[in-house]
Amino acid sequence: MATANTGFPNNFLWGGATAANQLEGGFDLDGKGLSTADMIAHVPKALRKGDHSMEISSRRIAEILAGDLSERFPKREGVDFYHRYKEDIALFAEMGFKVFRMSINWARIFPNGDDAEPNEAGLQFYDNVFDELLKYGIEPLVTLSHYETPLGLTLKYNGWASREVIGLYVKYAETVFTRYRNKVKYWLTFNEINVLTMSPYTGGGILSDKVEHRLQTIYQALHHQFVASAMVTKLGHEIIPGSQIGCMLARLESYPHTCNPEDVRKAQVESQMNLFFTDVHARGEYPNYMNRYFAENNIVIAREPGDDEIIAAHTVDFISFSYYMTLTVTAGPEGDVTGGNLVGGVKNPYLEASDWGWQIDPVGLRITLNTLYDRYRKPLFIVENGLGAIDRVEADGSIHDTYRIDYLKQHIIQMKEAVRDGVELIGYTAWGPIDLVSMSTSEMSKRYGFIYVDLDDEGKGTLARSKKDSFDWYKQVIESNGEVL
């Protein structure tokens, strides 16, 4: 007789997730080259628009390289994990982390992206970080490319718009796979690969003012990343027996605004356009529905012999994704538009929103988990989920972030329901276990962490770390394997 799952598996991987460009700092230390993220300036509130696409022109990059530093570039400094990683990892261990998601900054290993030899100081830094994690029994989950393409590849090749970058990425992956084969089991090839369609610069190091046909360039670059991901998946399995290599999607579950069939169809199309990326990674082929999209938008994917075969032969071991919100879409003009969500959409009257206007939908996470597992039947890993909020430090130094606890609690409840539904969920890494620089606006006031970092939007502060109330709460969640919330 079959029995239902009642909770998380005993080997469930609880932890937190970060990105090198938002965390590390040390942008010009020990031989590191500039990355695309190092050119992204802080966006003051008065200048913010709805999309925060983080596009940048070739002219502006030239001005910055010529010495125009009139803007602040907070991702260059991060929160100084580069010097404080031992302190930070000790705090993660105190919470009981089983896994820590981080990225390797490609430009720390190959400063220009196409260097003949890797930078030994960069390799040694990550050796030190992995050793510190393993000392506490924390598994590293490493993203190879997390919005940090070496700037040299942008200037020389226009990033992933050029097929030349495939070989350079494979060389980089082979270097780190070989170096860390005894230290890292879990790998992700590209962070939120679909974001390249929203910001070619962020996702692919592509300068849009250097291309004539934007959509053609975007999907050609994505093809290059799909081929590279498959090649690296093959390579990782060869170099690290037993390794687990996954893809990563910014999941955007779409609801129809009404039961009008036109709205339902609109939501279906939006979902297909989001799942296209995991279809290629997990099923090993381009889905048929993209043929019409390519034809209607004059997109012709240039393939080389063997591309389709390697994509088909080397699919990912698991599917990971970020989940912050759902979208509500309509085929008609009705409905109030919300600008806070990652890609906009119609306001959902049944949902509350964060301080930044992101609609909060815990049940949507259960829906997403079931959707992905029904479609792919591969293990799932939630590698980003969290609440960006304004935290108030009390006179005694305490931070009572009950709103963050409630947000995470409601999402974990729905995760457990999905496991009971039969979904194979292997782990959960809350985004930003320590406060870090915002991806979209490079601000510090949008805080996600269980650990507070004394640093403000202007770059002022001591960088001292302190625990929020959510720190002890999450420690309890991990200790009880999600039973005590």
UniProtKB/TrEMBL annotation:
<dbReference type="GO" id="GO:0008422">
    <property type="term" value="F:beta-glucosidase activity"/>
</dbReference>
<dbReference type="Pfam" id="PF00232">
    <property type="entry name" value="Glyco_hydro_1"/>
</dbReference>
<dbReference type="InterPro" id="IPR001360">
    <property type="entry name" value="Glyco_hydro_1"/>
</dbReference>
<keyword id="KW-0378">Hydrolase</keyword>
<protein>
    <recommendedName>
        <fullName>Amygdalase</fullName>
    </recommendedName>
</protein>
<dbReference type="InterPro" id="IPR017853">
    <property type="entry name" value="GH"/>
</dbReference>
<dbReference type="GO" id="GO:0005829">
    <property type="term" value="C:cytosol"/>
</dbReference>
<keyword id="KW-0326">Glycosidase</keyword>
<dbReference type="InterPro" id="IPR018120">
    <property type="entry name" value="Glyco_hydro_1_AS"/>
</dbReference>
<comment type="similarity">
    <text>Belongs to the glycosyl hydrolase 1 family.</text>
</comment>
<dbReference type="GO" id="GO:0016052">
    <property type="term" value="P:carbohydrate catabolic process"/>
</dbReference>
<feature type="active site" description="Nucleophile">
    <location>
        <position position="384"/>
    </location>
</feature>
<dbReference type="InterPro" id="IPR033132">
    <property type="entry name" value="GH_1_N_CS"/>
</dbReference>
